[in-house]
User: Fold this.
Amino acid sequence: MNVDKQRPVAIGCDHAAVALKQGLIEDLKAEGYELFDFGTFTSESVDYPDIGREVAEAVASGRFDRGILICGTGIGITITANKVKGIRAGVCSEPYSAKMARAHNDANIIGMGARVVGPGLALEIAKAFLETEFEGGVRHQRRVDKINALDN
Assistant:
């Protein structure tokens, strides 16, 4: 199912990604999305696991359907998110991976790298993620069920 544009999307970043996150929030709001910003809000150094965990827990709790995380590479913050039960997060550096993360893996969070993608590409990636439905079906659902079983 596509994200309900009236239901907020959780977003967060570390200090390396503040500018990209702010621009992405503005661009997505212009597209009609509502976002809840978990920070950080300045370039003062923070630990990305703190932000990644907070966003992931908010998505896992059901407060948000989807989340977007950004750090320098997207890798550390995404690894962190995947440690939270119920999260299926993938690092995406182009729109095709974001689309497939949703369509085949039912990903509920994507990570991006502010040192990897620029503002225009970040918007394309986010929109691909937010606008793609999980295909479901026996094949994809069976695989997602196996991923989810690892939480236990």
